[in-house]
Amino acid sequence: MQNLNVRRVVTGHDENGNAIVKIDDTITGKKIADEAEFAMIWSTDAFPSDNTDEFDGSQREIHRTSPGGTVLQFLNMYPGKKSKMHRTKTLDYGIVLEGEITLELENGVEATMKAGDVIVQRGTIHAWHNKTDKICRLAFILLDAQEISVGNQILEPVN
Hints:
About 0% of the residues lie in helices and about 50% in strands. The protein contains no helices and 13 strands. The chain has strands at about 5-15, 20-30, 30, 35-45, 70-75, 90-100, 100-105, 110-115, 120, 125-130, 135-145, 150, 155. It is globular.
C-alpha cells in the first residue's frame, strides 16, 4: 500500500516576537488494522488554543479525539475497505483530497464523496467505505463538542 507521509510546517515566534518556522518535518502514517493509515499532524488539549504552548501537538496521546481540544489528522483508506460504525463527541470537518469514499450512516443512508468534497460530521454514527480500487486520502479537523441529546436521551460516543 501507499505510505501516508505528510509534510508539516509549524510556525511560532522567537524571543523577539518575530515569526519563525519551528518545525519542518514529515509525519508518517500508522496502519490501523488492515483498512487504513492515520497521520496525526497536530492536536491541542484546549480550545481556544494557546499558540505559545511549545508542546508538539503530533505527540499528544489521544484516541480519535482530544477532549476540550482539536485534532488535525490525515487518513488513507485502502481500496475495498470499510471502517467500523462509530460516533465521536466532536464536530468534524472532513475533506476528500484524492479518490472517492462513501459515507454510510447507521440507517443505511449513503453519500459518495469525491476529491474536493467536504463533509461536516455532527456526531452521527457512521462508517467510511472505499468501494473503489484506489486509495482515498482525506483530511479531518475534529473539534470537541457538547454531548448530543435527543429528547431525554444522551447519544454516547461509539468506538
